[in-house]
Write a structure and sequence with these properties.
The chain is mostly helical and 51 residues long. The protein has one domain. It has three helices and no strands.
Length: 51
């Protein structure tokens, strides 16, 4: 999970990557399922980071 946190921090510092990272993360969430604990936790973090 620390890798995901590192990616989110990097996105905060590198806004031009936001769209690509969002696309990848959404694919991961879909694959795991919307109710998977990873999806629930990191979907919120992604939204906070992006917006």
């Amino acid at each position: 999970m620390s890798n995901v946190v590192a990616i989110l921090r990097y996105v905060e510092e590198t806004p031009e990557l936001r769209d690509r990272v969002q696309e990848i993360m959404v694919r991961i969430f879909r694959e795991l399922g919307q109710e998977h604990p990873f999806s629930v936790n990191y979907r919120r973090r992604l939204a906070t980071t992006l917006y």
